[in-house]
Amino acid sequence: MQKEPFKLQGSVLFIEPWNSLNPNIVAGFSTRNGGFSKEPFDTMNLGLHVNDAKEKVIQNREQLSQWIGAPLHTWICAEQIHGDKIAKVSNKDLGKGSTEMETAIKGVDGLYTKDRNTFLFSAYADCVPLYFSAISTQDIIGVAHAGWRGTAANIGGKMINKWISDENIAVEDIVVCIGPAIGECCYIVDDYVIEQIVNSLDGVVTNEIYEKVSPGQYRLDLKAANYEMIRASGVLPEHIEISNYCTSCHSDLFFSHRKSQGKTGRMLSFIGLKDGG
């Protein structure tokens, strides 16, 4: 098991190795703690779409914005439809989705930008958060939401391919972090899901990503599946960090859709580049 890349500071997890990569990057993952929401969204629910009181969610988002130094007017959020579409955004999109779901970037599960002081967010309660940056002279950051559908559609690989083709980023310069998500210990899926994942990974798997536990039932390692696809896209293995946190096991830190049978809050992934020296 590799060293955990996310370090808890207060109520927020930050991607510690990326601090040395670029001191202006602010990237991490919220926890369920330190907010104002009542059960079952206690306390730091950041999802506007889960029937929590909207004023509490905005209060929680304001709190997170203070902790990470990213005012709400600098946020950009994806709609998230469990797909594979990715949008390039800019400072012209600032504020979209920050306090209203209706203004989020429509039809996408991935966002990237080359603008500073532009923070990208997406919401989670078991799915896999993917973070992207580059070791280069270009400022570029991205985030993608990968549930099993997004994983099967290779949203991580599509982000990488877009950077290579559209932004002229060398693949050996791309760095990726796979964040906290439900682990294989807690994620049982059926034949249909496994077939979709296996078809997508045909010819690229170097490690086992699932284990059959009974007829038609499998333990699936979504983080490992994303790792395999990202590696197959050309990203160097040493440039891929993977969190060991399982969102279902660590109910003290995270909301889990599966563990709570659907009635729960959401964490947010975040990444931004601040102005700096």
Summarize the structure.
This protein has 277 residues and is an alpha+beta fold.
Question: Your description of this structure?
Answer:
With 277 residues, the chain is of the alpha+beta class. It has one domain (6-181, 224-273): CNF1/YfiH-like putative cysteine hydrolases (4-Layer Sandwich), CATH 3.60.140.10. 21% of the residues lie in helices and 25% in strands. The chain is built from six helices and 15 strands. The chain has a six-stranded mixed sheet. Strand 12 (210-214) and strand 13 (217-220) form a beta hairpin. The radius of gyration is 17 Å and the shape is globular.
Helix content: 10-25%
CATH secondary-structure class? Alpha Beta
Spatial arrangement of strands, main beta sheet: 1-2-3-15-7-4
Class from helix and strand fractions: alpha+beta
CATH fold-level name: CNF1/YfiH-like putative cysteine hydrolases
The CATH superfamily label reads CNF1/YfiH-like putative cysteine hydrolases
Which helices and strands, and how do they pair?
Elements (H helix, E strand, L loop, with lengths): L5 E4 L2 E4 L1 H5 L3 E6 L23 H15 L6 E3 L8 E4 L20 E4 L5 E6 L3 E7 L6 E6 L1 H5 L2 H13 L6 E5 L9 E2 L1 H10 L9 E5 L2 E4 L1 H11 L7 E3 L24 E7 L4
Parallel strand pairs: 4-7, 5-6, 10-14
Antiparallel strand pairs: 1-2, 2-3, 3-15, 6-9, 7-15, 8-9, 8-10, 11-13, 12-13
